[in-house]
Design brief:
Blueprint: H1 15-32, E1 64-65, H2 70-84, E2 100-109, E3 114-121, H3 127-139, E4 145-146, E5 151-160, E6 166-168
Length: 178
């Protein structure tokens, strides 16, 4: 059975420490030979400014949400969708029989950008409606930035009429009787 090498304390020392010691020795040696070196005036040294990361873009004040919970944010997001797609909203009370009821979850980051989505209750019988909801949710970005939350995951119920128009349960006007 081969023997494992024995690790000595000196081999466990960080390698950068040797480089620091060598640099310090060179600085001391340069200082000792002071009469032979020419000092460069400070005004001639090129000093580069430190590179700082750009601050994250801030949402405009008129395009932000003051909601403090996902439930409160859901109303702001629904109003945003209604403003973004006014021709797709069903006006008035929905008919008694609708094409689809879908529950869709959307994750929005702190700047209001769409991150991801998830079906809670998908209308599997209508893949065209599923694709439409996914497309609308993605293309509606940026959403109002949730300034009191580091991002938000909200859920809404999408109510689709046979005509392809919809209402969100958060802002629905209800359904007509039979």
């Amino acid at each position: 059975m081969p023997r494992r090498p024995v690790h000595r304390a000196s081999s466990l020392r960080p390698r950068g420490l040797n480089a620091v010691a060598i640099c310090m020795a060179l600085v001391v040696a340069a200082g000792a030979a002071g009469s032979q070196t020419v000092a460069t005036p400070v005004t001639e040294l090129a000093v580069s400014a430190p590179v700082l990361a750009e601050p994250a873009p801030q949402p405009s004040p008129d395009f932000s949400s003051t909601a403090t919970t996902p439930l409160d944010y859901r109303r702001d997001a629904a109003e945003h969708l209604y403003r973004t797609y006014p021709t797709r909203i069903y006006k008035g009370r929905l008919p008694p029989l609708i094409a689809s009821v879908a529950v869709f979850e959307v994750h929005i980051d702190s700047l209001g950008e769409f991150v991801t989505s998830r079906w809670v209750r998908a209308p599997w019988h209508r893949p065209d409606i599923m694709a439409d909801i996914e497309r609308i949710a993605k293309q509606a970005a940026p959403y109002p930035a949730p300034i009191h939350m580091p991002g938000v995951v909200y859920t809404d119920v999408w109510l689709y009429d046979q005509s392809g128009l919809f209402q969100l349960a958060t802002l629905t006007e209800g359904q007509r009787g039979k």
